[in-house]
Amino acid sequence: MNIKFLVKLGKSGNKIRQMLLQVYRDNAMKKTAVYKWVKCFSEGRESVTDEERSGRPAASRTEETIAKIHQIVRENCRLTVRSIDEKVNIDGKTVRKILTEDLDMRKVCAKMAPKELAKEQKQRRATIFQDFWRGKMTFWAMSSQVMKWQSAQWKTANSP
Fold it and tell me: Is residue 146 included in any domain, yes or no?
Protein backbone atom coordinates (compact mmCIF):
# COMPACT_ATOMS: atom_id res chain seq x y z
CA MET A 1 0.00 0.00 0.00
CA ASN A 2 1.10 3.52 -0.66
CA ILE A 3 1.28 5.54 2.58
CA LYS A 4 1.51 8.80 0.63
CA PHE A 5 -1.71 7.95 -1.21
CA LEU A 6 -3.51 7.07 2.03
CA VAL A 7 -2.33 10.30 3.69
CA LYS A 8 -3.73 12.28 0.72
CA LEU A 9 -7.04 10.44 1.21
CA GLY A 10 -7.05 11.74 4.79
CA LYS A 11 -6.45 8.44 6.58
CA SER A 12 -4.92 8.63 10.06
CA GLY A 13 -1.60 7.03 11.00
CA ASN A 14 -3.42 4.47 13.14
CA LYS A 15 -5.79 3.51 10.31
CA ILE A 16 -2.88 3.25 7.83
CA ARG A 17 -1.00 1.01 10.28
CA GLN A 18 -4.06 -1.28 10.63
CA MET A 19 -4.41 -1.53 6.86
CA LEU A 20 -0.71 -2.44 6.50
CA LEU A 21 -1.06 -5.11 9.20
CA GLN A 22 -4.13 -6.52 7.46
CA VAL A 23 -2.31 -6.84 4.14
CA TYR A 24 1.30 -7.63 5.16
CA ARG A 25 0.78 -9.22 8.60
CA ASP A 26 4.20 -9.97 10.18
CA ASN A 27 6.05 -8.23 7.35
CA ALA A 28 4.28 -4.91 7.89
CA MET A 29 6.27 -1.75 8.51
CA LYS A 30 6.90 -0.92 12.17
CA LYS A 31 4.49 1.47 13.87
CA THR A 32 7.12 4.21 14.40
CA ALA A 33 8.15 4.10 10.74
CA VAL A 34 4.53 4.40 9.61
CA TYR A 35 3.98 7.44 11.85
CA LYS A 36 7.23 9.00 10.63
CA TRP A 37 6.15 8.70 6.98
CA VAL A 38 2.62 9.88 7.74
CA LYS A 39 4.09 12.99 9.38
CA CYS A 40 6.49 13.61 6.46
CA PHE A 41 3.77 13.27 3.82
CA SER A 42 1.35 15.36 5.89
CA GLU A 43 3.94 18.15 5.96
CA GLY A 44 4.15 18.11 2.15
CA ARG A 45 6.99 15.74 1.37
CA GLU A 46 6.56 14.18 -2.06
CA SER A 47 9.51 11.82 -2.44
CA VAL A 48 10.69 8.78 -0.49
CA THR A 49 14.30 9.11 -1.71
CA ASP A 50 16.96 10.45 0.67
CA GLU A 51 17.35 14.19 0.71
CA GLU A 52 20.69 15.96 0.25
CA ARG A 53 22.77 16.13 3.44
CA SER A 54 25.92 17.95 4.37
CA GLY A 55 29.11 16.07 5.12
CA ARG A 56 31.39 13.72 3.27
CA PRO A 57 29.87 12.25 0.10
CA ALA A 58 28.89 8.61 0.37
CA ALA A 59 30.43 7.84 -2.99
CA SER A 60 34.11 7.80 -2.01
CA ARG A 61 34.59 4.47 -3.82
CA THR A 62 34.69 6.02 -7.26
CA GLU A 63 36.76 4.95 -10.25
CA GLU A 64 38.92 8.02 -9.69
CA THR A 65 39.80 7.13 -6.07
CA ILE A 66 40.34 3.46 -6.99
CA ALA A 67 42.81 4.54 -9.70
CA LYS A 68 44.51 6.96 -7.30
CA ILE A 69 44.95 4.26 -4.62
CA HIS A 70 46.20 1.81 -7.24
CA GLN A 71 48.83 4.32 -8.36
CA ILE A 72 49.90 5.00 -4.75
CA VAL A 73 50.31 1.27 -4.04
CA ARG A 74 52.23 0.73 -7.29
CA GLU A 75 54.68 3.46 -6.24
CA ASN A 76 55.14 1.98 -2.74
CA CYS A 77 53.61 -1.40 -1.96
CA ARG A 78 54.72 -1.29 1.69
CA LEU A 79 52.37 1.50 2.73
CA THR A 80 49.85 0.90 5.49
CA VAL A 81 46.13 1.48 5.07
CA ARG A 82 46.42 4.47 7.42
CA SER A 83 49.11 6.17 5.33
CA ILE A 84 47.10 5.56 2.15
CA ASP A 85 43.89 6.97 3.68
CA GLU A 86 45.80 10.11 4.73
CA LYS A 87 47.00 10.60 1.15
CA VAL A 88 43.56 10.22 -0.47
CA ASN A 89 41.54 11.70 2.42
CA ILE A 90 39.01 8.90 2.82
CA ASP A 91 38.45 6.59 5.77
CA GLY A 92 40.51 3.45 6.32
CA LYS A 93 37.60 1.02 5.93
CA THR A 94 36.92 2.33 2.44
CA VAL A 95 40.63 2.17 1.54
CA ARG A 96 40.79 -1.44 2.77
CA LYS A 97 37.66 -2.35 0.73
CA ILE A 98 39.15 -0.75 -2.38
CA LEU A 99 42.42 -2.62 -1.91
CA THR A 100 40.87 -6.01 -1.18
CA GLU A 101 37.65 -5.98 -3.22
CA ASP A 102 38.21 -3.61 -6.13
CA LEU A 103 41.95 -4.12 -6.65
CA ASP A 104 41.94 -7.73 -5.38
CA MET A 105 45.05 -7.16 -3.26
CA ARG A 106 46.21 -8.84 -0.08
CA LYS A 107 48.80 -7.76 2.47
CA VAL A 108 51.58 -10.37 2.34
CA CYS A 109 54.31 -10.62 4.96
CA ALA A 110 57.74 -12.03 4.29
CA LYS A 111 58.92 -14.65 6.75
CA MET A 112 61.37 -13.33 9.32
CA ALA A 113 64.01 -15.99 8.78
CA PRO A 114 64.62 -18.19 5.77
CA LYS A 115 64.43 -21.94 6.41
CA GLU A 116 68.16 -22.31 5.95
CA LEU A 117 70.61 -19.61 6.97
CA ALA A 118 74.01 -19.16 5.36
CA LYS A 119 77.04 -19.81 7.56
CA GLU A 120 77.77 -16.06 7.87
CA GLN A 121 74.16 -15.37 8.91
CA LYS A 122 74.31 -18.07 11.60
CA GLN A 123 77.59 -16.65 12.92
CA ARG A 124 76.21 -13.10 12.97
CA ARG A 125 73.14 -14.21 14.96
CA ALA A 126 75.31 -16.16 17.40
CA THR A 127 77.52 -13.08 17.95
CA ILE A 128 74.50 -10.81 18.50
CA PHE A 129 73.00 -13.27 20.97
CA GLN A 130 76.29 -13.62 22.88
CA ASP A 131 76.68 -9.84 23.09
CA PHE A 132 73.13 -9.55 24.32
CA TRP A 133 73.63 -12.34 26.86
CA ARG A 134 76.78 -10.68 28.24
CA GLY A 135 74.92 -7.37 28.62
CA LYS A 136 76.84 -5.52 25.92
CA MET A 137 73.70 -4.92 23.90
CA THR A 138 70.11 -4.04 24.78
CA PHE A 139 67.12 -5.80 23.36
CA TRP A 140 66.24 -2.77 21.24
CA ALA A 141 69.69 -2.64 19.67
CA MET A 142 69.43 -6.35 18.92
CA SER A 143 66.07 -5.92 17.21
CA SER A 144 67.37 -3.60 14.53
CA GLN A 145 66.21 -6.07 11.90
CA VAL A 146 63.07 -5.18 10.01
CA MET A 147 59.99 -6.42 11.86
CA LYS A 148 57.57 -8.71 10.07
CA TRP A 149 54.79 -6.11 9.74
CA GLN A 150 57.24 -3.56 8.35
CA SER A 151 58.14 -5.88 5.51
CA ALA A 152 54.49 -6.46 4.53
CA GLN A 153 53.54 -5.62 0.95
CA TRP A 154 50.30 -5.25 -1.00
CA LYS A 155 50.16 -7.89 -3.74
CA THR A 156 47.59 -9.07 -6.28
CA ALA A 157 46.89 -12.70 -7.00
CA ASN A 158 49.00 -12.44 -10.16
CA SER A 159 52.05 -10.74 -8.66
CA PRO A 160 55.11 -12.79 -7.68
Answer: yes
